[in-house]
Amino acid sequence: MRLAIAGVLIGSLLAGAAAHAESAGRTVRVETGEVVGKFQLNTAVRAFLGIPFAAPPVGDLRWKPPQPAAAWRPARAATSYGAQCMQPARSKTSVYYEYAGDQPTSEDCLYLNVWAPSDAEGAKLPVMVWIYGGGFQQGSAANPVFDGSRLAHRGVIVVSINYRVGIFGFLAHPELTAESPQRASGNYGLLDQVAGLNWVKRNIAAFGGDPDNVTIFGQSAGAASVTFLFASPLARGLFARGISESFGFANKSMAGLAEAEKGGLDLAAKLNAPSLADLRQLPPEKLLETQVAMSPIVDGWFLPANPYTVFADGKEAPAGLLTGWNEDEGTTFPHAKSVADYQQWLRRKYPDIADRLMILYPARSDEEAKTANKAVVRDSLFAWGPWSVARLHASNGHATYLYHFNHPQPLRPGASYDEIDTAGGLGSFHSSEYPYLFGTLDGLNRDWTTADRMLSDRLQAYWVAYAYSGSPNAPGLPRWPCFRETTDSTMYLGDRTGPGPVPNLDRLELFDTLPSPFSGF
């Protein structure tokens, strides 16, 4: 399989193939039965969609670690996505809804998707496993923007996995802990990810993939998942390297099991469900109606310790890491609307350094206050985490690469989204790299230019090169230097591609002095 690294624009890749040509793909045998895929990109790629990797987590399996999937006969048609996991609906005027669209939703959601070059049979190609974001409350491997066919066309196997989110993925409760052989509860969504990676380890060779050359990559909560998988003993040996986009650590501490169990009891009381059996009998919609958010914890099993401490002690997975963030991460998140609100927010969230932050992020007008607040969110939540992970991982002697993505999507004039409240638009917002990375530009309503398509080509080339060798460098690409703990350089990916200083380093260093760099919106 020849590796296509650089010099081929997405537009030319798709010439003559504006619509997917779909027909029966080859049959592949996995451990539970045969799956029949379909062609994409004419016949260049075969897609196998909606493959069960675990049993449906329903009934008595709600809030249990994922169990083995049942076998099937005859061959299963793997030509459409499985349902996304239970989650609240997005606003239909959100930029994030534009990525996802309307999707079927069900508790029966533990499915994965595989894209492979049509000539991959018998090969040992690198494997890239995508983990979606969504704050651990939302997300789906079926988002059209995550279509893996363009990346697979470059000579890799692409896998995307569903995992449980919100209450269904992260409820801790004393009765759940008591019934667990490990005396743990709460991290079911992360255990789903481990189950998916174990499935890849056992089955991906049948698609032409190398089970010993797996790169996990994800954005936002998916990037946090990458960090957690590096910190978890349950994931050791399941991946060779990781890519985490726009997240690392949220803070230097993390909620533990006892605190999360209390939250579970509070939820049960709110629902008038005095026992675990009562909770398991509730309709899933009733659980969603509570609007309670639940997220990963230090449970003593998947995460035996706080991930920051694991990295600080040098006990994370000895695997390569590529990480970074976007220029305008804060633009789609809550923020103050006036100078007075902004200053009050700083004093409430950061009482010890509020005066210093007002100097670093000044605001003399309400519009400046909005911009400043968004910048604080960017640096404290989405920049400090990747920078901190990179610094610790590099100091522990592991190959590390850092990036800064700074190319705005070309929104059309008059574009209106929930997240836009100023004339400045969204910039390089949180997740804005998605369509560039997956080569799915044409699925979005944008005024794409040749520069956008060239950047998409370059990002895919870097990510695929990294999946092949553990280095993003390859012929035809600007050189990407390794990140060192003692240097202040990163790789700029945007209108200019090349190394440069870490942006706002003095601010990141200030946040690094705090036990909780991100103190909430």
SSE blueprint:
Blueprint: H1 10-13, E1 24-30, E2 33-40, E3 45-52, E4 76-77, H2 95-100, E5 111-117, E6 125-131, H3 149-152, E7 157-161, H4 166-170, H5 174-179, H6 188-203, E8 209-219, H7 221-231, E9 241-245, H8 257-270, H9 276-281, H10 284-289, H11 307-312, E10 320-326, H12 339-349, H13 354-360, H14 366-395, E11 400-405, H15 434-438, H16 450-469, E12 489-493, E13 498-501, H17 505-511
Parallel strand pairs: 2-4, 6-7, 6-8, 8-9, 9-10, 10-11, 11-12
Antiparallel strand pairs: 1-2, 2-3, 3-5, 5-7, 12-13
Helix pairs in contact: 12-13, 12-14, 14-17
What's the short story on this structure?
The protein is built from 17 helices and 13 strands. The chain is of the alpha/beta class.
Provide structural commentary.
This protein is α/β, with parallel strands linked by helices. The longest helix is centred in the last third of the chain and has 30 residues, at 366-395. Strands 1, 2, 3, 4, 5, 6, 7, 8, 9, 10, 11, 12 and 13 form a 13-stranded mixed sheet that branches. The protein has helices spanning 10-13, 95-100, 149-152, 166-170, 174-179, 188-203, 221-231, 257-270, 276-281, 284-289, 307-312, 339-349, 354-360, 366-395, 434-438, 450-469, 505-511; strands at 24-30, 33-40, 45-52, 76-77, 111-117, 125-131, 157-161, 209-219, 241-245, 320-326, 400-405, 489-493, 498-501. Helices cover 31% and strands 16% of the residues. The radius of gyration is 22 Å and the shape is globular. It starts with 9 loop residues before the first helix and ends in a 10-residue tail after the last helix. A hairpin with a 2-residue loop joins strand 1 (24-30) and strand 2 (33-40). It is built from 17 helices and 13 strands.
